[in-house]
Amino acid sequence: MSATDSLELGEAVEEELMKLEEEVHQMVQRILRCHLNFLFARSIAKTSSMGENGSLMEDNSKEESDRIQLLKQKISSNISALFVVLKRMKGCMKRIDELESSNENIPPAF
Prior knowledge:
Layout: H1 3-48, H2 61-101
């Protein structure tokens, strides 16, 4: 492997790493946006379900609470999946760094 090949490979890895970091940043932004939307929807649901005297109205409250619970479950599963993805990404990045530091030949397909 010549010096230009390893330089090109290093640039390609660095470019791929930058793309992955940007994707992670976008995922975090989407999760935060979803979480804020959830909090906003929850506060709207609470205020809209209050009667004039401050008591909770019973109609549609069961359906709304089911929807809120489903939304909470989806957000929770997405957040827990995000940590697994980030952990795997860190592991992949660590392996890439180890491959870069070793002077092994990497097939051009990668």
